[in-house]
Specification:
alpha+beta; single chain; 10 strands; four-stranded antiparallel sheet; 170 residues
């Protein structure tokens, strides 16, 4: 099996590295993440390129209606008007199973098993995700944990991409 780096895959496909990473996260190409870097199967990338599907991007609008439609809860107090995005972990690609005690029993990140302690670090790296109605932007309030598998920038990118994808799917 021949594998490629994200940079080489982007050059072959004629797309940006960010697009390749998105394809990897969404399963559009067969890939695994090793030591924080995507390793893409060349045959899978060739099939994706052969599809040649380049739909125009759907305009994604962050509005009160779209954010609440994906599960947001509106909160107003003291001059602040926010819509909190509960269950933000699904936009990160983090799935956590719990014992009845509340402890983590198993976890996956983008379909790959991860340790329970890393799942805890990822889940506690973000305190809140919310849409500020006054300025129309999505914000992340960071927690106090430092995950090993993703940087804060990667976490933010994944959450924002997941939210955009959820809105586009409406």
């Amino acid at each position: 099996m021949t594998t490629l780096t994200a940079t080489i895959a982007a050059q072959q496909a004629g797309v940006s590295i960010a697009t390749i990473r998105t394809w990897c996260r969404r399963g559009a190409v067969a890939a695994t993440k090793t030591a924080g870097r995507w390793v893409i199967e060349a045959a899978s990338l060739a099939r994706r390129i052969a599809l040649g599907i380049r739909k125009p991007a759907k305009l994604v609008a962050f509005t009160i209606d779209t954010i609440t439609a994906i599960g947001g809860s509106r909160w107003t107090k003291g001059g602040k008007d926010r819509i909190y995005i509960n269950g933000w972990t699904k936009y990160l690609g983090l799935e956590i199973e719990h014992y009845r005690s509340g402890n983590i029993s198993s976890a996956t990140l983008n379909g790959e098993s991860i340790s329970n302690s890393e799942a805890y670090r990822l889940a506690s790296a973000v305190y809140k995700v919310y849409f500020d109605v006054t300025d129309g932007k999505v914000y992340i309030q960071w927690g106090n944990s430092d995950p090993r598998t993703m940087t804060r920038d990667e976490i933010a990118e994944a959450i924002f991409s997941g939210i955009r994808a959820a809105i586009a799917a409406l």
